[in-house]
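ugh ok fine here u go
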Amino acid sequence: MVLFDWGDTVMRNFPSFSGPMHAWPRVEEIPGVRTALEILRPSFRIGLATNAEDSNETDIRRALMRCGLSDAFDSVFCTRQIGHRKSERAFYLRILETLEIDASDVFMVGDSLEGDVQVANSAGISAVWFNPGSQVSSSGECHRTIHRFEDLAAALQELGARFP
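structure:
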């Protein structure tokens, strides 16, 4: 399974808008994410992992639907549902428990090195830091950095993901 962060990884976060994203006057996907999802879809289940406090799974899917991305995700995990923030190791452990899957079979992709990558790593999940805003990179045994989604499949393969 590949988990994606929602805000600024799958969908652009507009700080001037508040409330559930599905009600925002404007929503847009991050450039390249649709193609990345299409490349991964035949080989992996795809999930969304988010700290969204204003939205439940239905709200999140409604926002994704506005960009035509709702069907790309098999599962949606949000703070309201999980009972923990994504910055807590327990968030990821609850996802593993819910899916009845080993951490070694899950990869996280997100735009926060600390909140998405390092916390996922602490739960045994390998992760990819999506950092399109700078050329800063961080790589280790359990994580890689990409600056554009075109490099995601290669980064996942380096972390041990198997494509048929």
